[in-house]
Design goal:
It is a single chain. It contains 8 helices and 8 strands, in the order αβαβαββαβαβαβαβα. By secondary structure, the chain is of the alpha/beta class. It has one domain: Alanine racemase (TIM Barrel, Alpha-Beta Barrel). Strands 7-6-5-4-3-2-1-8 form an 8-stranded parallel beta sheet. α6 packs across α7.
Amino acid sequence: MIEQNVKNLLKEIPSKNPFNEKVTLVAAVKLQTAESINRAICAGVTDIGDNHVQEFRDKFSEICGNPKRHFIGHLQTNKIKYLIGKTDLYHSIDRLSVAEALSEKSRAAQITSNILLQINIGKEATKSGFYLEECEEVYQKISALPSLKIQGLMAMMPLDANQNLILDLGGKMREKFDLLKSCDKNFEYLSMGMSGDWKICIKAGSNLVRIGTAIFGERNYGK
């Protein structure tokens, strides 16, 4: 099933978004076994995204094929040490303190960490992230930190949002992304879209989609 799901998705996901940018599938691997993840990689997945640091750490050496590693979950400052030097892109920089901690750890390790700024586009109390209207100020502060490279923005759409709302919010994200991209050559990624809304998010301008359920099936949270 996993192999067929991956093949179906890779056929269905357009190679480019309406802005002529390559669209990349990031397989969201929360609660998946290393065996299942490796099956997805063998079927054509090139990028995988972890939500939990402990899972990332425990399964790191068991993952085959050398995929690009994304961290897409809520990042706690005291757990950054387990990700340093092993993560290609952090999607969820949602507060200044975590950017400062990642900067400090990256500088100590003599590396540069690639990050996305997480935007709480729906202003939801249950989600973290910066508000869109403070994005430029936050960008200025975080871009001044050493050993970090801001490569774009990330957002999660409200679960109850209809197609029109997703297009509206996604369009606002795209406008801000383009504004910052116009003055920063490192801006490359607009990460929006999961299993239930990726098609609409790509239409709005996303070029990174984070898909788990449509690959692996419903997660078993009782494990």
